[in-house]
Request: fold
Amino acid sequence: MDTKDLDFQKRRERAMAEVQLLDKDSIHNNPEREAFFENVYTRAEGDAAAVPWADLAAKHKLADWLTENSNHNGRAIDVGCGLGDNAEALRKAGYRTTAFDFSPKAIRWATDRFPKSPVDYRVADLFNLPEEWLSAFDLVHECYTLQSIPPETLEKSIPAIVSLLAPGGILLVYTRTRPDGGEVDGPPWPLEETKTMSFAEHGLELVSREDFNLERPDRIIPHVFCVWKKPG
Reply:
């Protein structure tokens, strides 16, 4: 790791500790989550290292999937797009891409980073999606959104994500995981094993599943990358 990367990582670790303190006593209702995310982006003051979920690059699993699958001429949407790197990867692969986030500051930051991008960046609420988005997308990409909101909201957040898929569409899900009943002191709230597979309850077919770990100096973080398909 070069000096620049090491400095970024040190700033990231400090920011993660600060963000955890900010969120420690939250009650995690919808208005409070919106305020929390806006606070994180405001405190960052333009430093992406201060946004714990911003890597300034597309997730490797997404990049690999886009390389391995060549039919990218439909419509795609990136759920909870943050600073826009995953959305831009979808766009570069050939998708006509929409990307949305709960946070207006995140969307402004993304459009500032990619001022000439044809990606349609929008402020939107997963629980109140625009009607024209329903059943409209050939590819839906969800990375870390489900784990960033309280587990009790999964009963409506998972079907909301599924509702974006057009018949025959593909859903990519990238998230932390934990065993059923495993202790969690979120956020984030890694998805329980049964929840990672609950997309099947909403009519989707599992195409592939890859379990993997991200290793940190103090812990190993289980993850899963699943590919689902809506019949049609």
